[in-house]
Structures are given as structure tokens and as C-alpha cells.
Design goal:
Blueprint lengths: L12 E6 L8 H14 L3 E7 L3 H6 L8 E4 L2 H13 L8 H28 L5 E6 L9 H7 L4 E6 L10 H6 L15 H9 L2 E4 L2 H5 L9 E3 L22 E6 L8 H13 L3 E6 L5 H10 L6 E5 L3 H8 L4 E4 L8 H8 L3 E6 L1 H6 L6 E4 L3 H17 L4 H15 L2 H23 L1
Parallel strand pairs: 1-2, 1-4, 2-3, 4-5, 5-6, 6-7, 8-9, 8-11, 9-10, 11-12, 12-13
Length: about 425
């Protein structure tokens, strides 16, 4: 055997582990499905997911046994999900607590994955094993070490999360029921996490914060890879950008305290009151009644529309009537809504913190510095006043935002990047063996 004789096919044979992967859901399950299915379309891949996703995989045309395997961990997970539901976790906040609870069952999932695929991994059937989800950096399992011991490269990620609450928003943190967020860093002290990261060949990190959370001596394995992406088939509308008044802005997402919708309304109030701006709010949540009261109290009912939850096509239709996405979330890991708006040609207006702050620059949108709530409101108001004074700045930014998403954030492009990484580590493994 020589260095020129690879032991893997031109199309890498990949085992894609995506516990959360569902084409019919949003957030992390949609990320898991989108990246895994895009990679599978270009490789000889097999996807491993949790049994709750089985029916959605079948409806999407996947063939069980050939294209995917569903792992049943319901014996452990169902009781935890019932407890989470009773505590209203997710629906009314408490995401850190929910992540901590679900992380308790995740190692069991990886043990069952190894039981089902360990012999096939050891036999060399797969060139690379890639764990796509969970995205949470607190989800630790034994699979990476076992794959590494079998002499097969292991890719982890994208992982993201754990962004600290910004100073000055303690009341918001309590309203979000984030009781455990101040303790989240404890997971970094777990020896099992260190062993998992050490066994990885590549660690994909969804943000610079996540990358900097990797131990310094292992950071050479880490690379930036934002977890969110865009399916161009789902984003066919293009926003009209007339470059004139009135300004049209929208918000897309859950109406919960951390999303900052109340700050957006307060900042835009003068423009909304005198007819220079309209604001469409797409989404629902625990804060809707308070936000509607805020709008009514300011006499802005004619300028602000609450649409509630809409299906994907309706979201596009409403958002495409806007020029800007007004999205002052104070704690956002990935910023999927920002990318989706950019895909429609909207100009994002965000707070310069965490995910949105890394996705947006002055070539595609606007960032307001993080600060106290009053500082953010003042910054947003000053920015919106400047845009209203010269709305012609918006069309070129909207076009640049759409072009960037089409170039860098389509799932097919992200899959191609992963495949290049997989081919590289598989090739390195061959050379090491030789």
C-alpha cells in the first residue's frame, strides 16, 4: 500500500449521528435534518436519529435501514419530557434547565448507537463518524472515544450555546426562568467532556464564543462553523426595497422577554407615531399580551400589526413586504431568524452580541452596541432615525445580505464544507495507518 492508495471511496462513507433531526420541526431538529440530509445527498451516508423522528424521515422519502436508523430511547426520555412539559420548560423559558435535563439521557442514546453500529465502525465500513446534534455543548457521550479507539475519525458539531447573560438583564433572566444559567459553566469541568473533545479529530463550533470554550490545548482541532443555514427552496420570496418612506420593519420569533421586542417598539415609537414606519410582529409567546398593551398605551395600534404564528409561506409573504428585520435579541446563540430574513433580502438590525452579532456586519446590515436596556433603546432609535432620514441606504444592503446567504449559508454549501473536512481527516487517517 502507498500513500496514493486510499482505503475510502471518492464519496466518503459517513455515519451521521443526529439525535435531533426532523424536517417538520424548527430550531435544532431542523438544523440536524438539513445538514444531515444535505451531506447524505452527496455522500454514501447513513443517518442515525432518535425514534421520535422516524415518521418524519419516512414522509420525507427516506428508507429505514438503507438511509437511516431510528434509535429508541423513549424509556428514559418520555418521563423527562413529561416533567419538562409540566414545568412549561421551553414554552415559557427555562431553556438552560431543559438542556440540563435532556443531557442526562443523551449518553444512553450514544451507547445504543455504539451497540447498533460498533462492529460496523470497527470493520472499516465508515470512513468518518460525524455527530451533528445535539448542538448543546453540555451533551456529552462516549461515542467519540469508542470511535477513536476503533481508528476511525470523529467530527463533532456544530456545537453552540452557553452564551452568558449580558449584564443589566437579571430581571429578564428571571422572567425567562433561567435558574441554572449561572451554573452552566460547570459542564466544562466534567472529565467526560474533556475525554470526548480529546477524541475528536475536528470540532465544529457555531460561534466564536463556543470556539473559545474549547480547552486551549485542544483548540487546534476547532473551527468556526455557524450551525444555521438556508434551504433555497423554502425562501423564494424577495423583499421589495424601494429605498423610500415609510419604513417597513418586521420581527420574526418567539415573543419572550429575551427577544427584546418591547425595546424595539419603544425605540421605533416616534417613527411609528408619525407614519414614517410600520412594524409587523410575526410570532407568539408569553409576552404578547404585554406587548399589545404597550402598543395600545402608546397609541400605535395603526402602525403595529401582531400576526401570531404563521406557516412558512405566510411568514415569507409578510416579511417580504418589509425592508428590515428589527431583531434586538439580547441572548441568541445562532441567529437562524437573522439568516432567514437575509435570505429574503431584508436588512438585519441586531444587537451586537453572540450569534446575530457575528452574522451581521456593515456590509449587510446594522448592529447596535450591547448595553443596558435604555442604552439599546437609545441606540436603536438613533439608528432608525438615520435610516429614516436616508432610506436609500437599504436596497444595496438588502441585496448584499441576500447574496451572502446564497453564497455561504445554503445547506448544500455547508454540506460541501463538511465533506471536504471529512475527506481530509479520512485521508490523514489512511496516511497514519500507512
Amino acid at each position: 500500500m502507498t500513500d496514493e492508495t486510499p482505503t475510502f471511496a471518492p464519496r466518503p462513507r459517513m455515519l451521521l449521528v443526529a439525535e435531533a433531526a426532523n424536517p417538520e420541526w424548527a430550531s435544532v431538529p431542523l438544523v440536524g435534518w438539513s445538514l444531515a440530509s444535505a451531506i447524505a445527498a452527496r455522500t454514501d451516508a447513513h443517518i442515525v436519529t432518535q425514534v421520535r423522528n422516524r415518521d418524519a424521515f419516512l414522509r420525507a422519502g427516506m428508507v429505514e435501514g438503507r438511509d437511516f436508523t431510528a434509535i429508541d430511547t423513549e424509556r428514559l426520555e418520555k418521563p423527562l419530557w413529561r416533567l419538562a412539559e409540566a414545568m412549561s420548560l421551553g414554552r415559557k423559558g427555562g431553556w438552560t434547565t431543559l438542556a440540563a435535563m435532556t443531557s442526562l439521557t443523551y449518553p444512553y442514546f450514544e451507547r445504543l448507537v455504539w451497540k447498533a453500529f460498533g462492529d460496523r465502525i470497527r470493520s472499516g465500513e465508515f470512513d468518518v463518524v460525524h455527530r451533528i446534534t445535539p448542538v448543546s455543548p453540555t451533551a456529552v457521550g462516549p461515542l467519540a472515544q469508542r470511535v477513536h479507539a476503533a481508528g476511525v475519525p470523529f467530527i463533532l458539531g456544530p456545537i453552540n450555546g452557553g452564551v452568558p447573560w449580558p449584564k443589566g438583564f437579571e430581571t429578564t433572566r428571571r422572567r425567562e426562568r433561567e435558574w441554572l444559567s449561572s451554573l452552566r459553566g460547570i459542564h466544562k469541568l466534567r472529565p467526560a467532556r474533556r475525554r470526548m473533545l480529546a477524541a475528536c479529530d475536528v470540532i465544529l463550533c457555531g460561534s466564536n464564543f463556543a470556539l473559545n470554550e474549547i480547552p486551549a490545548d485542544l483548540r487546534h482541532k476547532a473551527m468556526l462553523f455557524p450551525e444555521n443555514g438556508i434551504d433555497p427552496a423554502r425562501f423564494r420570496a424577495v423583499a421589495d426595497q424601494p429605498g423610500t418612506l415609510p419604513l417597513r420593519a418586521c420581527f420574526i420569533g418567539r415573543l419572550v422577554p429575551l427577544k427584546g421586542v418591547a425595546m424595539a417598539i419603544e425605540a421605533a415609537a416616534p417613527l411609528l407615531a408619525d407614519g414614517r414606519m410600520r412594524f409587523d410582529i410575526i410570532g407568539d409567546g408569553s409576552e404578547r399580551a404585554a406587548l399589545e398593551a404597550q402598543v395600545a398605551g402608546a397609541g400605535l395600534n395603526g402602525a403595529v400589526t401582531f400576526h401570531g404564528w404563521l406557516d412558512h409561506r405566510q411568514v415569507q409573504d409578510v416579511a417580504a413586504q418589509s425592508q428590515m428585520l428589527l431583531f434586538p435579541s439580547i441572548r441568541e446563540f445562532g441567529g437562524g431568524a437573522v439568516l432567514e430574513a437575509m435570505a429574503l433580502g431584508l436588512v438585519p438590525v441586531v444587537v451586537d452580541y453572540a450569534g446575530p452579532g457575528e452574522l451581521v456586519d456593515d456590509e449587510v446590515g446594522f448592529k447596535v452596541p450591547m448595553g443596558q436596556a435604555a442604552d439599546i433603546v437609545a441606540g436603536l432609535r438613533a439608528l432608525l432615525d438615520r435610516i429614516a432620514a436616508d432610506p436609500s441606504v437599504l436596497p444595496p444592503l438588502g441585496a448584499a445580505a441576500r447574496a451572502r446567504v446564497q453564497r455561504d449559508f445554503q445547506w448544500d454549501a455547508k454540506a460541501a464544507q463538511v465533506i471536504r473536512i471529512a475527506s481530509s481527516v479520512a485521508s490523514d487517517q489512511v496516511h497514519t495507518v500507512v
